[in-house]
Design brief:
There is one protein chain. 41% of the residues lie in helices and 20% in strands. By secondary structure, the chain is an alpha+beta fold. The protein has two domains: 9-153, Jelly Rolls (Sandwich); 160-259, Orthogonal Bundle (Arc Repressor Mutant, subunit A), CATH 1.10.10.60. The strands form two sheets. Strands 1-8-3-6-9 form a five-stranded antiparallel beta sheet. Helix 2 packs antiparallel against helix 3 and helix 4 packs antiparallel against helix 5 (175-182). It is globular and about 50 Å long.
Length: 274
Protein backbone atom coordinates (compact mmCIF):
# COMPACT_ATOMS: atom_id res chain seq x y z
CA UNK A 1 0.00 0.00 0.00
CA UNK A 2 1.28 3.46 -0.96
CA UNK A 3 0.73 5.79 2.04
CA UNK A 4 -0.90 8.97 0.71
CA UNK A 5 -3.63 11.28 2.03
CA UNK A 6 -7.20 11.12 0.67
CA UNK A 7 -8.45 13.45 -2.03
CA UNK A 8 -8.57 16.97 -0.53
CA UNK A 9 -12.10 18.25 0.18
CA UNK A 10 -11.75 21.08 -2.36
CA UNK A 11 -11.14 18.53 -5.13
CA UNK A 12 -13.86 16.03 -4.26
CA UNK A 13 -16.52 17.59 -6.51
CA UNK A 14 -14.13 16.95 -9.42
CA UNK A 15 -12.11 13.87 -8.47
CA UNK A 16 -13.93 10.79 -7.20
CA UNK A 17 -10.69 8.89 -6.63
CA UNK A 18 -6.96 9.55 -6.87
CA UNK A 19 -5.02 6.30 -6.65
CA UNK A 20 -1.24 5.84 -6.84
CA UNK A 21 -0.44 2.31 -8.00
CA UNK A 22 2.66 0.14 -8.06
CA UNK A 23 1.68 -3.35 -9.23
CA UNK A 24 3.87 -6.35 -10.01
CA UNK A 25 1.99 -8.84 -12.18
CA UNK A 26 4.93 -11.26 -12.38
CA UNK A 27 4.90 -11.45 -16.19
CA UNK A 28 3.85 -9.40 -19.21
CA UNK A 29 0.19 -9.57 -20.05
CA UNK A 30 -3.15 -7.83 -20.33
CA UNK A 31 -5.64 -6.95 -17.65
CA UNK A 32 -9.14 -5.58 -17.85
CA UNK A 33 -10.31 -2.00 -17.58
CA UNK A 34 -13.87 -1.78 -16.33
CA UNK A 35 -16.56 0.75 -17.25
CA UNK A 36 -17.70 3.27 -14.65
CA UNK A 37 -19.67 6.50 -14.22
CA UNK A 38 -16.45 8.55 -14.13
CA UNK A 39 -13.83 9.45 -16.71
CA UNK A 40 -10.38 7.95 -16.20
CA UNK A 41 -7.11 9.83 -16.39
CA UNK A 42 -3.95 7.76 -15.90
CA UNK A 43 -0.47 9.25 -15.46
CA UNK A 44 2.00 6.34 -15.82
CA UNK A 45 5.57 6.67 -14.55
CA UNK A 46 7.61 4.03 -16.38
CA UNK A 47 6.20 3.73 -19.91
CA UNK A 48 3.26 5.17 -21.82
CA UNK A 49 0.06 3.38 -20.90
CA UNK A 50 -1.04 1.06 -23.72
CA UNK A 51 -4.77 0.52 -23.80
CA UNK A 52 -7.26 -0.77 -26.38
CA UNK A 53 -10.86 -1.84 -26.41
CA UNK A 54 -11.15 -5.49 -25.50
CA UNK A 55 -10.89 -7.76 -28.57
CA UNK A 56 -10.19 -4.72 -30.77
CA UNK A 57 -6.38 -4.50 -30.97
CA UNK A 58 -6.59 -1.95 -33.78
CA UNK A 59 -7.91 0.54 -31.22
CA UNK A 60 -4.58 0.48 -29.29
CA UNK A 61 -3.57 3.86 -27.89
CA UNK A 62 -0.39 4.68 -25.96
CA UNK A 63 -0.05 7.84 -23.86
CA UNK A 64 1.67 9.41 -20.87
CA UNK A 65 -1.62 11.08 -20.00
CA UNK A 66 -4.16 8.41 -20.92
CA UNK A 67 -7.75 9.60 -20.93
CA UNK A 68 -11.01 7.73 -21.45
CA UNK A 69 -14.63 8.83 -21.32
CA UNK A 70 -17.64 6.87 -20.13
CA UNK A 71 -18.02 3.58 -21.99
CA UNK A 72 -20.02 0.37 -21.79
CA UNK A 73 -17.38 -2.08 -23.00
CA UNK A 74 -14.24 -3.39 -21.30
CA UNK A 75 -10.78 -2.09 -22.12
CA UNK A 76 -7.59 -4.11 -22.40
CA UNK A 77 -4.59 -2.70 -20.49
CA UNK A 78 -1.29 -4.03 -21.84
CA UNK A 79 1.72 -4.21 -19.52
CA UNK A 80 5.28 -5.57 -19.40
CA UNK A 81 4.89 -7.22 -16.01
CA UNK A 82 4.59 -4.19 -13.77
CA UNK A 83 2.95 -0.78 -13.72
CA UNK A 84 3.42 2.40 -11.69
CA UNK A 85 1.58 5.66 -11.85
CA UNK A 86 -1.36 7.68 -10.59
CA UNK A 87 -4.93 7.06 -11.69
CA UNK A 88 -7.71 9.62 -11.37
CA UNK A 89 -11.45 9.12 -11.61
CA UNK A 90 -12.92 12.41 -12.81
CA UNK A 91 -16.56 13.26 -12.18
CA UNK A 92 -18.79 14.81 -14.83
CA UNK A 93 -18.22 18.15 -13.15
CA UNK A 94 -14.51 17.41 -13.08
CA UNK A 95 -14.47 16.92 -16.85
CA UNK A 96 -15.64 20.49 -17.35
CA UNK A 97 -13.40 21.99 -14.66
CA UNK A 98 -10.19 20.06 -15.29
CA UNK A 99 -10.41 19.16 -18.98
CA UNK A 100 -12.32 22.20 -20.14
CA UNK A 101 -15.07 20.22 -21.89
CA UNK A 102 -18.13 18.10 -21.08
CA UNK A 103 -17.70 14.39 -20.53
CA UNK A 104 -19.97 13.79 -23.52
CA UNK A 105 -17.15 14.92 -25.82
CA UNK A 106 -15.07 11.92 -24.74
CA UNK A 107 -17.70 9.18 -24.50
CA UNK A 108 -16.44 5.83 -25.85
CA UNK A 109 -13.05 7.42 -26.57
CA UNK A 110 -9.52 6.23 -25.73
CA UNK A 111 -7.37 9.32 -26.08
CA UNK A 112 -4.88 11.48 -24.15
CA UNK A 113 -4.67 14.92 -22.62
CA UNK A 114 -2.87 16.34 -25.66
CA UNK A 115 -5.37 15.10 -28.23
CA UNK A 116 -8.24 16.20 -25.99
CA UNK A 117 -6.78 19.73 -25.94
CA UNK A 118 -6.77 19.75 -22.14
CA UNK A 119 -5.43 22.85 -20.37
CA UNK A 120 -1.68 23.34 -20.65
CA UNK A 121 -1.08 22.64 -16.95
CA UNK A 122 -2.64 19.20 -17.34
CA UNK A 123 -0.75 18.42 -20.54
CA UNK A 124 2.53 19.31 -18.81
CA UNK A 125 1.75 17.24 -15.71
CA UNK A 126 3.11 13.85 -16.97
CA UNK A 127 6.55 15.30 -17.66
CA UNK A 128 6.62 17.16 -14.35
CA UNK A 129 5.73 13.95 -12.48
CA UNK A 130 8.81 12.20 -13.85
CA UNK A 131 11.04 14.71 -12.07
CA UNK A 132 9.48 13.99 -8.65
CA UNK A 133 11.14 11.16 -6.67
CA UNK A 134 8.58 10.13 -4.00
CA UNK A 135 4.92 9.13 -3.92
CA UNK A 136 3.81 11.82 -1.44
CA UNK A 137 5.48 14.50 -3.57
CA UNK A 138 3.93 13.13 -6.77
CA UNK A 139 0.46 13.08 -5.25
CA UNK A 140 0.95 16.60 -3.89
CA UNK A 141 1.95 17.82 -7.36
CA UNK A 142 -1.16 16.28 -8.89
CA UNK A 143 -3.37 17.81 -6.19
CA UNK A 144 -1.86 21.28 -6.62
CA UNK A 145 -2.23 21.15 -10.39
CA UNK A 146 -5.85 20.04 -10.27
CA UNK A 147 -6.76 22.51 -7.52
CA UNK A 148 -5.36 25.39 -9.58
CA UNK A 149 -7.31 24.27 -12.65
CA UNK A 150 -10.52 23.93 -10.65
CA UNK A 151 -10.08 27.37 -9.08
CA UNK A 152 -9.72 28.97 -12.51
CA UNK A 153 -12.68 27.08 -13.99
CA UNK A 154 -15.38 28.76 -11.90
CA UNK A 155 -18.84 27.17 -11.62
CA UNK A 156 -18.81 23.97 -13.69
CA UNK A 157 -21.69 22.10 -12.07
CA UNK A 158 -24.14 20.43 -14.45
CA UNK A 159 -27.62 21.93 -14.69
CA UNK A 160 -29.22 21.36 -11.27
CA UNK A 161 -32.08 19.25 -12.62
CA UNK A 162 -29.68 17.07 -14.61
CA UNK A 163 -27.39 16.57 -11.62
CA UNK A 164 -30.40 15.62 -9.48
CA UNK A 165 -31.65 13.20 -12.12
CA UNK A 166 -28.23 11.54 -12.38
CA UNK A 167 -28.19 11.11 -8.60
CA UNK A 168 -31.65 9.54 -8.73
CA UNK A 169 -30.59 7.21 -11.53
CA UNK A 170 -27.49 6.21 -9.59
CA UNK A 171 -29.74 5.34 -6.68
CA UNK A 172 -31.76 2.99 -8.87
CA UNK A 173 -34.85 5.07 -9.63
CA UNK A 174 -36.48 4.24 -12.96
CA UNK A 175 -35.83 6.67 -15.81
CA UNK A 176 -39.52 7.67 -16.07
CA UNK A 177 -39.67 8.37 -12.33
CA UNK A 178 -36.43 10.37 -12.36
CA UNK A 179 -37.74 12.47 -15.25
CA UNK A 180 -41.00 13.15 -13.41
CA UNK A 181 -39.11 14.04 -10.22
CA UNK A 182 -37.16 16.80 -11.96
CA UNK A 183 -40.08 17.96 -14.11
CA UNK A 184 -38.94 16.76 -17.53
CA UNK A 185 -40.33 14.37 -20.08
CA UNK A 186 -38.32 11.19 -20.54
CA UNK A 187 -37.29 12.40 -24.00
CA UNK A 188 -36.06 15.75 -22.67
CA UNK A 189 -34.15 14.12 -19.81
CA UNK A 190 -32.55 11.67 -22.22
CA UNK A 191 -31.35 14.54 -24.39
CA UNK A 192 -29.88 16.47 -21.43
CA UNK A 193 -28.17 13.46 -19.84
CA UNK A 194 -26.65 12.44 -23.17
CA UNK A 195 -25.37 15.98 -23.68
CA UNK A 196 -23.69 15.88 -20.25
CA UNK A 197 -22.11 12.42 -20.17
CA UNK A 198 -22.47 10.98 -23.68
CA UNK A 199 -24.80 8.16 -22.66
CA UNK A 200 -28.59 7.93 -22.36
CA UNK A 201 -30.05 7.64 -18.84
CA UNK A 202 -30.61 3.89 -19.04
CA UNK A 203 -26.97 3.24 -19.96
CA UNK A 204 -25.73 5.59 -17.23
CA UNK A 205 -27.90 3.77 -14.70
CA UNK A 206 -26.57 0.44 -15.93
CA UNK A 207 -23.01 1.65 -15.28
CA UNK A 208 -23.95 2.92 -11.82
CA UNK A 209 -25.42 -0.46 -10.88
CA UNK A 210 -22.37 -2.29 -12.25
CA UNK A 211 -20.10 0.06 -10.31
CA UNK A 212 -21.98 -0.67 -7.10
CA UNK A 213 -21.66 -4.41 -7.70
CA UNK A 214 -17.96 -4.07 -8.39
CA UNK A 215 -17.38 -2.43 -5.00
CA UNK A 216 -19.01 -5.40 -3.25
CA UNK A 217 -17.67 -8.24 -5.40
CA UNK A 218 -15.24 -10.41 -3.45
CA UNK A 219 -16.55 -9.09 -0.15
CA UNK A 220 -20.07 -10.59 -0.18
CA UNK A 221 -21.66 -13.67 -1.80
CA UNK A 222 -22.71 -13.13 -5.42
CA UNK A 223 -26.41 -13.64 -4.66
CA UNK A 224 -26.23 -10.96 -1.97
CA UNK A 225 -24.40 -8.59 -4.32
CA UNK A 226 -27.09 -9.11 -6.95
CA UNK A 227 -29.92 -8.40 -4.50
CA UNK A 228 -28.22 -5.39 -2.93
CA UNK A 229 -27.41 -3.73 -6.26
CA UNK A 230 -30.80 -4.19 -7.88
CA UNK A 231 -30.24 -7.12 -10.23
CA UNK A 232 -33.12 -9.54 -10.74
CA UNK A 233 -31.00 -12.44 -9.54
CA UNK A 234 -27.44 -13.81 -9.61
CA UNK A 235 -27.82 -14.92 -13.23
CA UNK A 236 -28.75 -11.36 -14.22
CA UNK A 237 -25.66 -10.07 -12.44
CA UNK A 238 -23.48 -12.61 -14.27
CA UNK A 239 -24.91 -11.63 -17.67
CA UNK A 240 -24.37 -7.94 -17.05
CA UNK A 241 -20.87 -8.50 -15.71
CA UNK A 242 -19.93 -10.51 -18.80
CA UNK A 243 -21.32 -7.82 -21.09
CA UNK A 244 -19.59 -4.91 -19.33
CA UNK A 245 -16.40 -6.52 -18.04
CA UNK A 246 -15.80 -9.14 -20.72
CA UNK A 247 -15.74 -11.98 -18.21
CA UNK A 248 -17.86 -13.55 -15.50
CA UNK A 249 -17.69 -12.28 -11.92
CA UNK A 250 -15.87 -15.42 -10.80
CA UNK A 251 -13.27 -15.03 -13.56
CA UNK A 252 -12.68 -11.41 -12.58
CA UNK A 253 -12.31 -12.40 -8.94
CA UNK A 254 -9.76 -15.04 -9.84
CA UNK A 255 -7.72 -13.06 -12.37
CA UNK A 256 -8.08 -9.39 -11.46
CA UNK A 257 -9.25 -8.96 -7.89
CA UNK A 258 -5.89 -9.74 -6.21
CA UNK A 259 -4.24 -6.88 -8.10
CA UNK A 260 -6.73 -4.21 -7.02
CA UNK A 261 -6.45 -4.92 -3.31
CA UNK A 262 -3.96 -3.75 -0.74
CA UNK A 263 -3.23 -5.35 2.58
CA UNK A 264 -6.23 -3.68 4.22
CA UNK A 265 -8.65 -4.99 1.61
CA UNK A 266 -9.16 -1.61 -0.03
CA UNK A 267 -8.87 -0.91 -3.73
CA UNK A 268 -5.45 -0.05 -5.04
CA UNK A 269 -6.26 0.67 -8.68
CA UNK A 270 -9.37 2.38 -9.94
CA UNK A 271 -12.16 2.16 -12.40
CA UNK A 272 -10.91 2.27 -15.95
CA UNK A 273 -7.48 0.71 -15.55
CA UNK A 274 -8.05 -2.06 -13.04
Amino acid sequence: MIPVPPVPPALRPYVAARIPYDVDFGAPGVHRGLPSTTLTLVLPLDDPLRVSWDRRPASMHAAWGSLSGLHTAPAAIHHDGSQRGIQLALTLRGARALLGRPAADLADELTDVDAAAAPVALRELPERLHAVPTWPARVALVDRTLAALAARAGDTAPQAEVAHALALLTGGLRVESAAAEVGYSRRRLTSLVRAECGLPPKAFQRLARFESARRLLGRRPLAEVAATCGYADQAHLAREWTALAGCTPTTWLREEFPFVQDGDGRERAGSEHD
